[in-house]
């Protein structure tokens, strides 16, 4: 399968935009044609996958639609590690993953393997578990309903 043509073009990306205004300014100041705008963890709310900061990046869904109306594409970073420290019921990627048993566990145990990534303690999806694909797809679809991204950096 061939990748989409736009994915072979020039992409604008960096960590540290910090606000949607800074992101817009960088895009305008680029002053050359480009095909895709990427976002990094600074766009996320507390570096949680499948979220965006409603404070610093309020209006991000509209910005993405604006980019798309100009023929550009939006790529969002998603880490394959899900925060395990959020209050129960407040972070559906983790809550749903626990209910569906998709996270890696210690050998002969139900205890989750917990590691450290950007948001702190995180659980790791077991992509050898067929249920994980459905869980991942559902998380991505819910996020796509919020922000109509064109690609993911995993």
Automatic annotation (TrEMBL):
Q: Name one GO molecular function term.
A: alpha-1,4-glucosidase activity
In this chain the Glycoside hydrolase family 31 TIM barrel domain maps to 2-152
Alphabetical keyword list: Glycosidase, Hydrolase
Q: Which domain of life is it from?
A: Eukaryota
Q: Which GO terms describe its biological process?
A: carbohydrate metabolic process
Looking up Pfam families in the UniProt record yields:
Glyco_hydro_31_2nd
Q: Which family does the entry's similarity section mention? A: Belongs to the glycosyl hydrolase 31 family.
The protein's name = Glycoside hydrolase family 31 TIM barrel domain-containing protein
Q: Which organism is it from?
A: Rotaria sordida
């Amino acid at each position: 399968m061939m990748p989409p043509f736009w994915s072979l073009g020039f992409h604008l990306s960096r960590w540290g935009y910090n606000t949607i205004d800074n992101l817009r300014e960088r895009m305008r100041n680029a002053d050359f044609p480009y095909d895709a705008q990427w976002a990094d963890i600074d766009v996320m709310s507390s570096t949680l996958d499948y979220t965006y900061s409603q404070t610093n990046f309020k209006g991000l869904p509209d910005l993405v639609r604006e980019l798309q109306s100009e023929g550009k594409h939006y790529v969002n970073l998603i880490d394959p590690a899900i925060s395990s420290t959020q209050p129960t019921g407040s972070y559906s990627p983790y809550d749903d993953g626990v209910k569906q048993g998709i996270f890696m566990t210690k050998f002969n145990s139900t205890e989750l393997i917990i590691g450290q990534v950007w948001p702190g303690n995180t659980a790791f999806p077991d992509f050898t578990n067929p249920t994980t694909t459905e869980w991942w797809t559902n998380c991505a679809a819910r996020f796509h309903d919020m922000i109509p991204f064109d690609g993911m950096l995993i």
